[in-house]
Amino acid sequence: MNRKHNLYIKENRTFAKRQNVCMIQVLKNYFGYEKFRPLQEEIIQHIIQKKDCLVLMPTGGGKSICYQLPALLCEGTAVVISPLISLMKDQVEALKANGIAAAALNSNNDETENAEIKRACITGKLKLLYISPEKLLSEFDYFLNNIQISLFAIDEAHCISQWGHDFRPEYTQMSILHQRFPQVPIIALTATADRITRDDIINQLRLKDPRVFISSFDRPNLSLTVKRGFQQKEKHKAILDFIDKHANESGIIYCMSRSKAESVAQMLQKHHIKSGVYHAGLSSQQRNETQSDFINDRIQIVCATIAFGMGIDKSNVRWVIHYNLPKSIESFYQEIGRAGRDGMNADTILFYSLADLILLTKFATESKQQHVNLEKLQRMQQYAESDICRRRILLNYFNEVSNEDCGNCDVCKNPPQRFDGTVIVQKALSAIARTNQQIGVSMLVDILRGSFSADITEKEYDKLKTFGAGRDIPARDWQDYLLQMLQLGYFEIAYNEKNHLKITSSGSDILFGRSKASLVIITRTETITKQKKKKVVVEKELPMAMPAIENENLFEALRALRKQLAEQEALPAYIVLTDKVLHLLSISRPTTIEEFGNVSGIGEYKKNKYGKDFVEVIRQYEGVV
Ligand code: ADP
Ligand code: ZN
Question: Which ligand has its closest atom nearest to the C-alpha of 391?
């Protein structure tokens, strides 16, 4: 008995081992990667055993492979339910580019196209079928009768929950899947981690005894920077400087309003920077156009409201700027997550101003869920005002404790230094006191700076003793100091009283010399050192201990070839090869097709399809031919 049992275990282990070898082989053959990311392997095994699960991973974390690989390993067709047609298109193109039979069934196709796709499903030729929830419901009978389904994957599964930010009513009818197909495993995937949404997904999908896989939400390749107190002109200058240092790099600028998105795009266009606009006020045709221009690198930048980005998997977005403060860490994290999906370094910048804070507080106060929304905004504020490692604040928000500073945020790079700012604080508070606490932030700055305006002369604020008392400090620094003072609790904003500033008791202590105020020195240095950072990420993926020396000319030559191939096939460049693969190629410089195939991110299909062309360019460069 015992021997038999041992034998059984041994056999099982060998089976598991064999299966692992097989999984790695499939990973390399189709996707070109040597290793799984944390949790991917476990999730895949779970699905292969026909068990349900919920997967929480940040945007760019590598969710797709969790269902795409089981789809390849199991018999039949995997049905992927996805809310957006553009997203399906992107995924299907990426799969096909890796030689995997996939298609999307949706209302954008014509009837013949859809009929062909269905036939391919019935004959078992498709490994993955993408479909929208409404289309799935209307085609349900056909599914029941005709195709062998290997698994259901519910992408963007948070759309099920009314509590989430992208609620879609059609998603709530997905309980039908398990009712009709109790044997087919369901994998639900999302980047939204809060508990209510999680429970909602499990309940509504009727998941059976599901395992919940939560991966780390850390995205160490994203740098985090906050710029405090900038006014419009300074923001624009900072953005232009940034873009200048990041020539040819795709980026997104998120704005709070449609009109802001448009004016920022106009500003960029005036400086001959190719940019587009994306917001809910545009027609769907206009939006699709912007999206497609961005994906195909015809424009470098998209200025958008929060509506943009869910529908794309563009892997080489190199930076995300928040022109305004987002209303919650969830939105913020999802938006910055759209940068650096290929794992290469990417930068994120948030502009934090008092004016935004005041406006968002107003919105939150007037909203239905006042309490929750104010709380969320406060957590966002905490991130923006942090003087400890910002990544720790983010991870802590997602209930992840990290004991180390990240070294890739502005606080880590330039730890805040303090000075005795008592006099500065006194000047500001004194101006507030002398107006009988009847002014808001911008009036306060005008008084301190001694700027004349109709409002000031009318109210005779120019006669105040403090008028012009802070002339030596630029307006943007005043904005910064005022944010610090708010954070330190020296004054409050009376949101119900035209946002006038009210001195608190600890503010009075400073004003009357009873205690001292310590402020953070304002530094305006640019901390992003582009080249150095890129190497760090790539080095880990090189086949041997190879020095990560990259030649820019070769990189550009490879990039030009990628562009040409992409245009021939009418595909986005990042689907042909990712930026990361291009960097790896220009460092490791393979001169045979076999070596080309060894590079991380190149599977069999791409090796055979593109190897010759790329190797030729490299050989020419190396003087081999
Ligand atoms: P998500 O859907 O979670 O936002 P994706 O599935 O699009 O993320 O994956 C993000 C990027 O990471 C893609 O470029 C993908 O090819 C890459 N990736 C996924 N798994 C691995 C892996 N095991 N090794 C290397 N890269 C990977
Ligand atoms: Zn940090």
Answer: 2
